[in-house]
Write a structure and sequence with these properties.
394 residues, globular
Length: 394
């Protein structure tokens, strides 16, 4: 049986392992974090296309159980005026977008992988790969920082934005680009007037004078919020204090007639800031024995909120190609042909949204057509929901 070494135990890695298991291919996950990385990130959205890809591998249930829905988007100006409302694409075709903490998604995917007998090795940071000559072809060995190694028939780099696998495949590969914005997420128990947003099952998007703000209300009443904050790239090892970020973000919305500043002030220390990057294209996705998926191959700015769904799609499509093709290289080629155009289109759409939120009040108040933030999945030309209507036939 073919054995796959999966580098990275995040969303892409866990989903790929389960999809390979369904395809009858052995997989083992190697994660650099010493534990399950339960504290990684803030919260995210899995859209209809991502949920449908999970359904293909019978992994949709745990995600639905640990998340809550959003059915519409409400757009508000810095003066508090309602600019528009619309349903989120995909809400009429089964489960619509689901919101959950990134740590929760990691946890439920890892639990489901463990239930299927998939091994996850923690504390394994990839530093090199080596070819392994075999009578029936060449395999690959992963070499880890702790001096250990593992051998397999192929290696899948699901190791994220700052991928080691990507650099091993192509040392000249482009590096992620900083978009000029920080993304800050937080949680608030602030009690708002009943007629003030955010409303249940709604994402309220506020086009402030100085920054962009979004929020939704969880079933227990807690408000989950994020802000796209223009600013310099900070040291990832020293992102700053939650209190400092809370003051900075709240200050950007103090002059607006919206609930944004009050929500940020009411938050506690659960404030998480990250740099916003994208990776529009890389020339080489694979070798004969190695391939990259998810953010390691393509990364969109967070504005379109499709990162998790794209990673999920990647894993299922790659597993199907490995099941149906005679060797890893032909499977990798088929996977790239099926995925490159779509994911690069998503990256471009999200970059367009990021530019609009940085253009000042006039630009920020014109939502990008055909994107999840604006509630549509169409491309603005033919009205087709190209983004959320995507389906994988197993």
């Amino acid at each position: 049986m073919t054995k796959a070494l999966i580098i990275g135990g995040g969303i892409a890695g866990a989903v790929t392992a389960m999809a390979l298991h369904k395809a009858g291919i052995e997989a083992e996950i190697f994660e650099s974090y010493p534990t399950g990385a339960d504290d990684a990130g803030a919260f995210l959205v899995v859209f209809a296309n991502g949920l449908e890809a999970l359904r293909v591998i019978d992994a949709q249930g745990p995600v639905l159980e640990h998340s809550f829905p959003a059915r519409q988007v409400q757009l508000i100006s810095d003066r508090g005026d309602l600019l528009g409302e619309r349903p989120i694409a995909g809400t009429g075709q089964g489960p619509g977008p689901r919101t959950l903490r990134r740590a929760t998604l990691y946890r439920v995917l890892h639990a489901e992988a463990a239930r299927r007998g998939i091994a996850v090795r923690h504390g394994k940071r990839l530093v090199a790969t080596e070819p392994v000559p075999r009578a029936d072809g060449t395999g690959v060995a992963a070499v880890f920082a702790d001096g250990t190694r593992a051998e397999g028939d192929l290696l899948i780099g699901a190791d994220g934005l700052h991928s080691v696998t990507r650099s091993l495949i192509d040392p000249a590969a482009p590096r992620p680009r900083y978009t000029g914005q920080n993304t800050v997420c937080g949680y608030s128990r602030h009690t708002l007037d009943a007629d003030r947003p955010p409303h249940p099952e709604t994402y309220t998007m506020i086009f402030g004078k100085q920054a962009f703000f979004g929020c939704t209300r969880a079933p227990d009443g807690e408000v989950w919020w994020f802000a796209n904050v223009p600013g310099p790239e900070f040291d990832r090892a020293d992102p700053g204090s939650p209190a400092g970020w809370r003051r900075r973000v709240a200050g950007l919305f103090e002059e607006d007639d919206t609930p944004a500043a009050a929500l940020v002030h009411a938050g506690g220390d659960r404030v998480i800031a990250s740099n916003s990057y994208d990776l529009a294209t890389i020339p080489t996705w694979h070798t004969d024995t190695m391939v990259v998926i998810g953010d390691a191959a393509h990364a969109a700015a967070p504005n379109a909120a499709q990162g998790a769904s794209m990673a999920i799609e990647d894993g299922v499509v790659l597993a199907k190609c490995l099941r149906d093709r005679p060797d890893p290289r032909s499977a990798f080629t088929a996977y790239e042909e099926l995925r490159r155009e779509r994911v690069e289109k998503v990256v471009a759409a999200s970059a367009g949204m990021a530019r609009r939120t940085a253009m000042g009040p006039a630009g920020r108040q014109q939502p990008e057509p055909g994107t999840p933030r604006a509630g549509g999945g169409g491309d603005g030309a033919d009205g087709d929901n190209w983004l959320t209507d995507y389906r994988i036939t197993w």
